[in-house]
Amino acid sequence: YEPLHFSVLRLIKNIIDAGNSAGKWVSMCGEMAADPAYTEILIGLGLRYFSVAPGSVLKIKREVRQINYAKARKTAEDIFSEGDRESLIKQVKRKRIY
To answer: In angstroms, what CA-CA distances link 45 with 54, 55, 90, 98?
Structure first.
């Protein structure tokens, strides 16, 4: 799958919103959750709980501490309103550290 595909991001957003509406915690585990390049986008979509391997905890924690929540929300909104996938991919590639 392509993590930055609009359908994948929309599905993630819908799951987070549905969980929040039902009063349930939504957590993500796997490669996308463990990649600091996606952390800001995921937080902007409303994700609050990340489940990552021990080797990724410090990288994700460091990224979370640097994120401006309002900016992350704006980034997530822009993803869906502008439909500019190419600029999103460039932004993520600049942040990717491995």
So the answer is: 24, 24, 19, 23
DSSP state for residue 19 in the 8-state scheme: H
- pLDDT tens per residue, range 3-61: 888 889 999 999 999 999 999 999 999 999 999 989 999 999 999 999 999 999 999 99
Distance set, CA 17 to CA 20, 92, 95 (Å): 5, 23, 26
Buried b (16+ CB within 10 A) or exposed e, 53-74: eeebeebbeebbeeeeeeebee
Task: Please determine, for residue 65, whether its predicted confidence score (pLDDT) is greater than 90.
Answer: yes
Q: How far is CA 33 from CA 16, 22, 39, 43, in A?
A: 14, 22, 7, 10
Q: What is residue 57's predicted lDDT score, i.e. its pLDDT?
A: 95
